[in-house]
Amino acid sequence: MLEITLFYIAATIALVATVLAMTRANAIHALIYLIVSLLAVAVIFFLIGAPFAAALEIVIYAGAIMVLFVFVIMMLNLGEKGDQQERHWLQPKIWIGPALLVTLLFIELLYVIARVEGPVSVTSVSAKEVGLSLFGPYVLAVEIASMLLLAGLVGSFHLGRRYLDRDGIEKEGEQ
Amino acid sequence: MSELMPVLLALTILIGGVAGAAILTWFERRLLGVWQDRYGPNRLGPLGIGQVLADMIKLLFKDDWVPPFADKVVFIFAPTAIVVAMMMGFAVVPFAPGMMIIDVNIGLLFFLGMTSLAVYSVLLGGLASNNKYALLGGLRSAAQMVSYEVFMGLSLMGVVMMSGSFSLVDIVEAQTDVWFCFSQILGLIVFVIAGIAESHRLPFDLPEAEHELTAGFHTEYGGMKFAMFMLGEYLGLMLISCMIVTLFFGGWHGPALIGHWLPPLFWFGFKVFIVICFFVLLRAAIPRPRYDQLMSLGWKVMLPITLINLVITGAVLLWMEGAA
Lengths: 175, 324
Fold this sequence. Notes:
By secondary structure, chain A is mostly helical. Chain A is 74% helix and 0% strand.
């Protein structure tokens, strides 16, 4: 009973924070709400017996990826002008299309949930099991993801490197 | 009693953490004084410990001012994030057998998660100040802390491999005979350096480097909000010291022969004290590197060391498994 209450609290926080993240005009405020939403999702993961996924959610999503988002926003220096533009874009009529599609998805989701018989079994998944399945049946996906990351790494290195001519003097821009 | 224990411990940590951080400000200055052949604050009370109280009163009575050009909500929220994250980090530290708030099987990851959330304090503080120096400090801290988090996590994987668990109690118990500081010496070195960079203390305090950025991310902060940043920094120092002792120096286990003479809690506290003194000495001994030097040290030296450590540890463990 306690766990169900905790689940609903975390779920409510996640939903409210996500809605607020979408509707904020200020990019930093939106990002902070998104971080809160990710933390709430981590709590949900923990409650349904996936502590490892919860930890990764905090370390990777909330702790690293969102930091980089904030980093980029800091460099863009949007200011009050950016807020006004965002407010201009967030007109009510913009929401009609997405709302229709989301309603369809929601009905489908309710239908699927209604068809599931009995409560879904909750078993705790340990870090070891995650590791074994990642490097067992899903090893191909892991390798493909690592190749993709390597490509990203090489690409960003290429964009960011300084071009030196033969005397070791830095050249401006690209060749 | 057993249900009440974590609550009492949490309260003790809360009060002890704040008091410890306050006393550390004085202790650090006195210790630096000893090492640099001068006195430090020695006037108020015995040994000058009244200085703590004087500093606190001064900070409390300062005008709690928010600059008109700052993003008010984020500006006020930023200093609390680091204190909350660091305090949460203490939840998984095993002080003595059975004396911890929660023993989760992902204790180590929980600690890493909390230290990574502490970045937001510096980042948002720098951003919300709407000040060039603060922004530069925030940018530096983001790059520095995200990079050093990588080595921090990787350097601990050797310990995890050897103990076979993310639970800090299991890690301490795996060190009953031999501490990991011998077999995981490379991991220890990287973790200590990354720990200083994560808590942005002096050799690596580039986010607030005063000679180039006035005070970096907390340029616009004063009074109690500034005190919160300092509290968070000292809590981070204590948390990193606790983790170094837990992961590499046998946690509550005493040294081999004389270990059982004194209670486990004493040994833990004593070792944490030594590590904190080491961090203070480091502050007095090593000058601040340049920013690009810091980053190239990270990616060109620390990352290869941690990867080599991982390969060696894995190979030795597999070889021992095969031999057994």
